[in-house]
From TrEMBL:
InterPro entries: Bact_HTH_transcr_reg, Chorismate_lyase_/UTRA_dom_sf, Tscrpt_reg_HTH_GntR, UTRA, WH-like_DNA-bd_sf, WH_DNA-bd_sf. Keywords: DNA-binding, Transcription, Transcription regulation. Residues 19-87 form the HTH gntR-type domain. The keyword S-adenosyl-L-methionine does not apply. This is GntR family transcriptional regulator.
Length: 259
């Protein structure tokens, strides 16, 4: 059976459910993907074919397909149609170690490269002044990169560092932490805040996912041993690529809970 037949077979199965048509269609496509009846890269029949074969309106088909594109199940390529999305190999990332992107990927044997989105010296924003402890007359070095592992774009990272620590952001090689390490400024502690986000058009385009899909917004503030803040980084990670894992322990009697 080809992809179209698999979907229509699933649709016949679900037509007894009495659920709205667009939901039935959405579930049928999802089910066909989950059961492996249609796989990554398979083309979906055209909107017109689905509509006429299943005897439902094109508006209904479009609604179901758009939902699945938003959910990352399908991808749309302009001019060539709709396809089952490639399956992502998820990266499991510990939340207890202060490592760099380069180190994280190297440990997994993945190749790393970055596309520079911005690097330069700027007047600091109010946020940057507050977090990095800068005055309005000082400058901030901004380093923004698209981080790519094994040819898959995983994250967009926008780091801000005091220009007194990083006077020449152009001189960073492939790793920011390695560059900070050469001047004895590699952070030793960090506080990281992770929150859910829906990717906007520009970020989604860079990360090669559909606009509006789920992503993770991560803010890292890292410190030197002296307690001085060294890095303020705001990142957006692909939600389908990362699992952040934290180990939790029951505190023993008499042990303090420290923040
Ligand atoms: C991680 C952190 C960033 C940090 C980066 C440094 O991805 N989330 O806050 O700036 O590592 O990575 P690299 O040394 O590879 O540039």
């Amino acid at each position: 059976m080809n992809a179209a037949d698999q979907i229509f077979a699933m649709l016949r199965e679900s037509s007894q459910s009495g659920a709205p048509l667009y939901l039935q269609l959405r579930r049928s496509i999802e089910e066909a993907v989950n059961r492996g009846l249609i796989g990554p890269g398979d083309a979906l029949p055209s909107e017109r074919d689905i509509a006429s074969k299943a005897d439902i309106s094109r508006v209904t088909v479009r609604k179901a397909v758009q939902d699945l594109v938003k959910g990352g199940v399908l991808v749309q390529r302009h001019g060539s149609g709709t396809f089952v999305a490639p399956r992502m190999e998820r990266v499991e990332q510990s939340l207890s170690r202060l490592t760099s992107f380069t180190e994280d990927m190297a440990r997994r044997g993945m190749s790393v490269r970055s596309v520079w989105l911005d690097r330069g010296l700027y007047a600091p924003s109010p946020d940057e002044m507050m977090v990095l402890g800068l005055s309005s007359t000082e400058l901030v070095a901004r380093v923004a990169r698209l981080r790519i592992a094994n040819d898959t774009p995983l994250a967009i990272e926008r780091a801000a560092i005091s220009a007194s620590v990083l006077p020449d952001p152009e001189a960073i090689g492939s790793s920011l932490y390695a560059a900070l390490g050469t001047t004895g400024n590699r952070p030793v502690r960090a506080v990281q805040r992770i929150s859910a986000t829906n990717l906007g058009d520009a970020d989604a385009l860079l990360l090669e996912v559909s606009s509006g899909v789920a992503g993770l917004q991560i803010e890292r503030i890292s410190y030197l041993a002296s307690g001085k803040v060294i890095e303020f980084t705001r990142s957006v990670y692909r939600g389908d690529a990362y699992d952040f894992v934290a180990e939790l322990r029951l505190t023993g009697p008499g042990e303090e809970i420290r923040p």
